[in-house]
Amino acid sequence: MNRKNIFFWTLYDFANSIVSIVFFLYFSQWLVVDKGVPDFWYNMIFTIGSAILLLTAPVLGSIADKTGRQLLYFNVITVLVFIFYLLTSITTLFFTQKVFLAAALFLGANYFYQFSFVFYNALLRHVASSDKQGMASGIGQAGNYSGQIAGLLLALPFAGGALYLFGEPGRAQTFLPAVFIFFLLALPMLVFFKIPKKEVKAAEKIKLVAEYKNQWRKFNELIRAPHMGFFLLAYFFFSDAIITASGNFPIYVENVFAVSDSIKSLILVGILFTSIFGALFSGWVADKIGLKKALLIVLGSWVLLFPLFGLTTNFTVFVVLCVLMGFLFGAIWTVTRAAMTALCPPEKLNFGFSFYTLAERVSTLVGPLAWGSITYFFIGLGPARYRLAVASMAIFVAIGLFFLRKVEIQK
How far is CA 109 from each of CA 103, 105, 180, 207, 208, rounded to the nearest angstrom? Predict the structure, then answer.
């Protein structure tokens, strides 16, 4: 493994996780609980962002493969992530009634945040050789979850009122510190991460219209690579369930168990702590027993876990399940990223990871619709509608598991 690159790569994941977890936990509640926006419209932020990502990510990923300038594109997009999160923070603090503007800016921040992973994930091959990519991916994920723990601990005194900056008190106080710390810690990756100079190709004229016209042909070539099509289809379904459930987690806990933000934060710290072990352990296991076998075990566990969440009415049992979920959460992204790197032809890696990211994000066209529809149309059930919604996520994972069984990963 390239020790310098893996340090900067992991530090970046640590950094962006600080800002993502703070907005994940507190912006959803600021919008839905504090400002009264329906769950459905909160979920539509991700649906719209996914649609925009579908129109843009594959083209830029393809151009990056042609030019070798994925690091430049990654750096520019990271700066845009910072700008949009910063503007969202300022709006929630000083223009608190402009809810639509805050939601639109958050949509942009989340869009660029997801876009950055098209290039970030593809850089895994510059971090470790193929026989060590499972472990390297696990180290990166461990950095991710460590960053989320740091973000929660950072935000807690601001959310609880122990520390106050300016503007609207409460949840809006948490955003600005997280944004600045994210950018400060992301800078080493932007400045010092290196890829071989030979990969940066001679300048050539890129015709954007032609690139769009060629997308369908290139996509067909990508999914014709051995087992790539079934893998992306499987990933679409199981990531759909996991991301939808995690994105609605704070609202779920608020409406089903009615606990304070402090308790929510402590639960998330527990989840993220076990996620670190899940990431490291699954990476090591995947290198030993193979990526496919490891992924099948993890997905089978998720199929059982979602219905258990829906059936659980005891808060202590719920917390125990959350800790178990953390371990599986760490494992799922570690193994799938390494599997994608193993399956995708190296010359199409940025383009391939654009569809890996899209399979994850476009799945949120379906998952949030399912979750939002259940919570909307079964409003008469009260909190039980959230239990029904989380249990239904097992269906999506089971479909993904079915398609994954058809995939062979040579590792």
Answer: 10, 6, 14, 27, 24
For 105, half-sphere exposure in the C-beta direction (CA atoms, 13 angstrom radius) is 20
Cα(278)–Cα(264) distance, rounded to whole angstroms? 21
- Let me know: does 70 contact 64? Beta carbons within 8 Å: yes
User: Comparing C-alpha atoms, which of 330, 327, 324, 335 is closest to residue 283?
Assistant: 335
What's the structural domain count of the chain? 1
Answer whether residue 398 is part of any domain.
yes
Residue 204 lies in a domain: no
Per DSSP, helices labelled H in 98-173 are: 99-122, 133-160
Position 75 scores a pLDDT of 92
**Mean pLDDT by groups of 10 residues along the chain of 411 residues:** 80 92 86 82 81 81 76 91 96 90 94 87 74 75 85 86 80 92 94 72 60 68 74 86 83 84 80 86 85 91 93 92 90 85 74 69 68 84 89 92 85 58
Q: What is the pLDDT of residue 285?
A: 87
In-domain check, residue 53: yes
Backbone dihedral angles phi then psi of residue 328, each to the nearest 5 degrees: -70, -35
In a domain? residue 409: no
Neighbours of 41 (CB within 10 A): 15
* pTM metric for this prediction: 0.72
CA distance 155 to 281: 28
The two tokens of residue 27 are: 């912006």
- Give the CATH number, domain containing residue 178: 1.20.1250.20
Neighbours of 52 (CB within 10 A): 15
Amino acid at 61: G
- What is the per-residue pLDDT for 2? 65
296: exposed, middle or buried (C-beta count within 10 Å: 0-12, 13-18, 19+)? Answer: middle
Return d(Cα 398, Cα 299) in angstroms, integer. 8
Coil/strand/helix, residue 402: helix
Q: Which domain, by its residues, includes 39?
A: 3-192+215-404
